[in-house]
């Protein structure tokens, strides 16, 4: 029996004599948990809880995934028992089990694994408190902008993308908790779950969390072998190794890894690359090494993956990041403002302005960040308070629905640089190495497609190049796209990223 909301429900196992009153008890326990822990925590951890039975002594409850069970057991058992005792008067204990998959309350998929003992104790505060409190960690001072293993360089890491700068709310609570647990347990004998798979639409914090894990593991153990790679960089490095007829050395690089973080899995394309990825992931998982993956889609929805890989990727924790609610958007804005203020204490945005931004910019964290950046620049320029009117006009082109966002070449350069793991400086330089020429050409092609700039203008913005160079790039990409569905998909994904 399930309430339409998926809320806590008293199961059918109750005895006839208990009847409605047991159901009433379940509801009361729910109300009590809600009141004691707060709406946010209740929704995150108890919404999917069901009451299965009560034998006069043990209250049996269930949740859809192992992760929830462990979390409740390590953080909220006392509270849960207390609330149950208030209603089920003779109750002495509560037992939490994982019910069979297939429940529509389950957002994520877990597999029954050995309970984590020492590692769990090591990561969890024994007190029943919210995760944002439980996981608060000392400030992280990033020292380097990249991970590397055995001379093999990962994709760049943004020093802002730490757990400290990540705001937790209902939309990302599970993904964040999973990320924290991985970061804290990966170097222990009891890793949390493997793999951790995060997915969401664009701009909701996947990359931020992956990089936060990388920073945190490095902070804990300088020598930890951490590798953060976009799928694109993985592919590029592998193709280079093939070209150099040295594919074995590519595999070798992964041997000593403690944790591999793969971002934007949907870009893992090309038959050989996919096979190699398959190989490496299987080898790492078999060897007990931690794997973390971020993607725009659930593993079951990535058609290119083979069946075995799809199911392997679902065996740990699969967590979705949902759209942000108003409050979370406000808090992300506050966080961004606080970061600016740390550098420049005079900068301020009124509650009214923050509220306007949070009401209008509903799509992604990227918009929120962009709005604060723009307003900060405006403020630097004017050195006068930002009025709601100014805020509206400065961020108008970020506002959804008012007018389509005008795409800037700057946006294209930023996304191309992030996606291919080459710096903007390289894109604009005279370097003619394949690793920069290809991204540069794709960038020029996208600039022609997505902006109204003329060819000479595009040439100028891409490192003072001649318009014939731009034309050549466009023709080249058009030709390759015509015969390569993979590249077409990739370009489509890039367009989506740029348009956001
Ligand atoms: P994704 O990889 O899912 O597309 P990103 O991790 O790149 O998203 O996030 C986009 C921007 O929004 C980044 O600047 C990131 O720091 C910010 N952001 C997303 N979620 C949060 C959050 N919960 N707290 C703070 N910043 C966030
Ligand atoms: Mg990302």
Secondary-structure map:
Layout: H1 19-37, H2 39-46, E1 50-54, E2 58-63, H3 66-75, H4 77-87, E3 93-98, H5 118-123, H6 131-134, E4 146-149, E5 152-156, H7 173-185, E6 196-199, H8 206-220, E7 226-230, H9 231-243, H10 247-253, E8 259-263, H11 271-286, E9 290-295, H12 307-313, E10 317-320, H13 326-343, H14 351-360, H15 365-382, H16 388-394, H17 409-420, H18 424-428, H19 434-450, H20 455-461, H21 467-482, H22 485-499
Parallel strand pairs: 2-3, 6-9, 6-10, 7-8, 8-9
Antiparallel strand pairs: 1-2, 4-5
Adenosine-5'-diphosphate (ADP) is lined by residues 161, 165-167, 172, 200, 202-208, 332, 335, 365-366, 369.
Search tags:
alpha/beta, GMP Synthetase, Chain A, domain 3, Rossmann fold, Helicase, Ruva Protein, domain 3, 4 domains, five-stranded parallel β-sheet, three-stranded mixed β-sheet, 22 helices, binds adenosine-5'-diphosphate
Helix content: 40-55%
| Whole-number total of structural domains | 4
Rg, rounded, reads 25 Å
Give the DSSP E fraction (strand runs of 2 or more residues).
Answer: 5-15%
What is the CATH level 1 assignment of the largest domain? Alpha Beta
Q: Based on helices, strands and strand pairing, what is the structural class?
A: alpha/beta
- The beta-strand count equals 10
For the termini, the CA-CA separation is 41 Å
**What spatial form do the alpha-carbon principal axes imply?**
globular
Instruction: Report the total helices.
Output: 22
Q: How is the largest sheet built, in terms of strand order?
A: 7-8-9-6-10
Bound molecules: adenosine-5'-diphosphate, magnesium ion
Biggest sheet record = 5 strands, parallel
Low-confidence stretches: 1-19, 102-144
CATH architecture type of the largest domain: 3-Layer(aba) Sandwich
Oligomer: single chain
């Amino acid at each position: 029996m399930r309430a339409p909301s998926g809320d806590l429900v008293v199961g059918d196992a109750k005895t006839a004599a208990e009847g409605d009153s047991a159901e009433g008890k379940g509801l009361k326990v729910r109300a009590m948990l809600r009141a004691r822990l707060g709406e946010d925590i209740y929704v995150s951890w108890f919404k999917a809880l069901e009451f299965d039975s009560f034998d006069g002594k043990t209250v049996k409850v269930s949740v859809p995934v192992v992760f929830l069970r462990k979390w409740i057991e390590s953080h909220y058992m006392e509270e849960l028992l207390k609330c149950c005792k208030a209603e089920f008067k003779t109750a002495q204990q509560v037992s939490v089990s994982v019910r069979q998959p297939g429940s529509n309350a389950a957002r994520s998929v877990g597999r029954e694994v050995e309970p984590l003992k020492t590692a769990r104790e090591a990561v969890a505060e024994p007190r029943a408190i919210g995760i944002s409190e439980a996981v608060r960690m000392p400030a992280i001072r990033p020292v380097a902008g990249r991970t590397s293993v055995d001379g093999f360089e990962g994709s760049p890491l943004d020093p802002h993308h730490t757990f400290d700068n990540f705001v937790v709310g209902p939309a990302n609570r599970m993904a964040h908790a999973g990320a924290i647990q991985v970061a804290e347990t990966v170097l222990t004998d009891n890793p949390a779950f493997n793999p951790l798979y995060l997915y969401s639409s664009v701009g909701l914090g996947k990359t931020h969390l992956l990089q936060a894990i990388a920073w945190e593991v490095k902070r804990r153990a300088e020598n930890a072998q951490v590798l953060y790679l976009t799928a694109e960089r993985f592919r590029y490095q592998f193709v280079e190794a093939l070209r150099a007829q040295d594919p074995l050395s590519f595999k070798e690089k992964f041997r000593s890894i403690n944790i591999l973080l793969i971002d934007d899995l949907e870009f893992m394309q090309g038959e050989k690359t996919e096979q190699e990825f398959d190989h490496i992931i299987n080898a790492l998982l078999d060897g007990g090494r931690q794997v973390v993956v971020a993607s725009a889609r659930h593993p079951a929805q990535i058609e290119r993956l083979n069946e075995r890989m799809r199911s392997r990727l679902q065996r740990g924790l699969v967590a979705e990041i949902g759209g942000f609610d108003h409050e979370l958007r406000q808090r992300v804005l506050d966080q961004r403002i606080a970061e600016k203020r740390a550098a420049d204490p005079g900068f301020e945005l009124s509650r009214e302005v923050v509220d306007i931004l949070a009401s209008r910019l509903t799509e992604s964290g990227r918009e929120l960040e962009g709005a604060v950046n723009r307003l900060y620049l405006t403020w630097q320029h004017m050195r006068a308070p930002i009025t709601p009117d100014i805020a509206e006009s400065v961020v108008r082109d970020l506002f959804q629905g008012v007018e389509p966002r005008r795409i800037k070449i700057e946006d294209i350069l930023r996304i191309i640089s992030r996606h291919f793991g080459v710096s903007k400086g390289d894109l604009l330089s005279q370097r003619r190495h394949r690793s920069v020429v290809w991204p540069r050409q794709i960038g020029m092609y996208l600039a022609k497609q997505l902006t109204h700039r003329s060819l000479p203008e595009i040439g100028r913005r891409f490192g003072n190049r001649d318009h014939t160079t731009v034309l050549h790039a466009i023709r080249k990409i058009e030709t390759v796209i015509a015969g390569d569905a993979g590249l077409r998909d990739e370009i489509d994904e890039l367009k989506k990223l740029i348009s956001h």
